[in-house]
Amino acid sequence: KEQEENSRVLDVDDRAVADGDKVTLDFEGFVDGEAFDGGKGTDYPLTIGSGSFIPGFEEQLVGANIGEEKEVNVTFPEDYQAAELAGKPAVFKCTVKKIEVKELPELDDEFAKDVSEFDTLEEYKADIKKNLEEKKADAAKRAKEDAAVDAAVANATMEIPDAMLDTQVNQMIDDFARRMQALKRIQTRLVLEKIAEAEAIEIADEKIDEEINKMAEMYKMEADKLKEMLGDAEKEQMKKDMAVQEAVTILADAAKEVEKTEE
After folding, report:
1. Phi, psi of 195, rounded to the nearest 5 degrees
2. Sign, CA torsion 219/223/226/231
3. End-to-end CA distance of the chain
């Protein structure tokens, strides 16, 4: 990706068109010797091999030189959008005016220095690999946590207050799919809150302060000002949310123990 983003486009004037080149061309199409509407283009950009033109068109431009006229013979597809052209053979008179090619930078130590904080390509590659592995591990952890929570919800017996469900549904409009999602979110929350209660999970004020400091840093604010803005109700909600997250961790850890036992 970094190599692609740091590429540059160069003009080519010492060879003919090749596959993958970006060309600028003029063209005019004829069916039964007559020019047709929409069949003419000037300074049109086209990447050879992109498949954006009629099948067979781009391939026939390979080998064309800048400034020379080349006839391209194609047949419009049977399902072509313009019914009067569908299935008909056509001739396009084309003139390539410009050839460009994308040049990728060499993957070497200089490239690593240009795009990263590292001095060598090997260090840069190792950092990319490390980041990918961390993302993969995080995704796997989240998947296990979600599976553990889903299992707990599936095994729980509960009654959902109508008012609570109605409020959630109203917030998510009246779409059925979203309504079902709202139901699952409420079930999940209630189960996790019960687990937090059963496990006697208590969130200390110090933990809340730590979280507020993180939020302040994220939003580029002073922590003291953010604390002033947050009322008791908001802080209490933060405690509940953090207790629920602790419950998720407990479920995930329990699931790990079950896996070890089964193995």
Report:
1. -65, -45
2. positive
3. 40
Residues in a beta bridge with 28: 40, 93
Please give the distance of CA 235 from its chain centroid, rounded to a whole number.
34
Helical ranges in 95-231 per DSSP H? 109-115, 121-154, 162-171, 176-198, 205-218, 223-229
Least confident of 17-21, 116-120, 247-251: 247-251
Q: Is the pLDDT of residue 263 over 70?
A: no
φ, ψ dihedrals at 56, nearest 5°: 95, -15
Q: What is the pTM of this model?
A: 0.43
Rounded Cα gap, residues 94 and 65, in angstroms = 11
> Per DSSP, what are the bridge partners of residue 96?
25
**Contact 95/26 with Cβ under 8 angstroms?**
yes
Which residues have C-beta within 8 Å of that of residue 72, sequence separation ≥ 6?
27, 56, 57, 60, 61, 91, 92, 94
Inter-residue contact 77 to 57 (CB < 8 Å): no
Q: Which of 256, 247, 263 is nearest to 190 (CA)?
A: 247
What are the backbone angles phi and psi of residue 230, rounded to the nearest 5°? -85, 125
CA distance 203 to 212: 13
